[in-house]
Fold this sequence. Notes:
The chain is of the alpha+beta class.
Amino acid sequence: DRxxxxxxxxxxxxxxxxxWFKWKPSEIDLLGTxxxxxxxxxxxxIINGEITSVDLIEKQIDSNQDRxxxxxxxxxxxxxxxxxxxxxxxxxxxxxxxxxxxxDRSEVIFMPDTTNSKLSSRVMIPGYTLEKSLKLxxxxxxxQSTRGNPLLAEEHKENFSxxxxxxxxxxxxxxxxxxxxxxNFIAVIVTFIAPFSPDPSRYTVGAIFTTAGANYVLSSKLPxxxxxxFAEIMNTYCSIVIIIMMALLAIVPTVILKDGKTELLxxxxxxxxxxxxxxxxxTTTILLNWAALH
Length: 294
């Protein structure tokens, strides 16, 4: 019904949704009515997360027709690893994993209600596009542990039915690349303009500090990870191009002017080096972005 917050850096997201169960009371004691231990318990868990609030919306138990129905409004927060290798054009599935608290898969198997489950039109996440269809599945979740219970054998295993609802989100492609890397691209272009100025070092030093600042901003958006993201590759690439240009601007003029004269051939060589570097930068940038988008 609502995504309150998505924090890629902290690997978590908060959300609100409606959850309902339909069952036959003669076959399943879903709510723990006949067990004193579970009578006041909410009968489900959010796996890898926590329920911050839950409100009972409706409850129907009809013994004559052997029909049970209960609906909750739930607010929860889930910890989820996000694959950021393609950041800023990454895509993710936001997963809501639900299990019964005490009934294992031999007692209850969740069947997704694909007919009535829908994503609210109010659900929006700034910076992301949402697919308006929910992906609903049921899967086996095995717990291969006795949890220290001395009454259970060491090879004890419990299987629970896990219901999963997934929302697919993605970025807007080329526009997000331009937004994030525009300042870096400008810094590199300024470096290529530097040879035509009286003091090239002012431009190149400014450009390298600009990319360093962009790197700092980028690191504040990403979670701690051993993965090298597409954004980090692009930032590093721009920094390397600027450093190479700084080196060329320092070395090439020295070599050309070592005898105090500048020959036409040497001027052409200098211009050729600069043009080649610029073409290489444009070509490599296009190829990297094409590979990421496809």
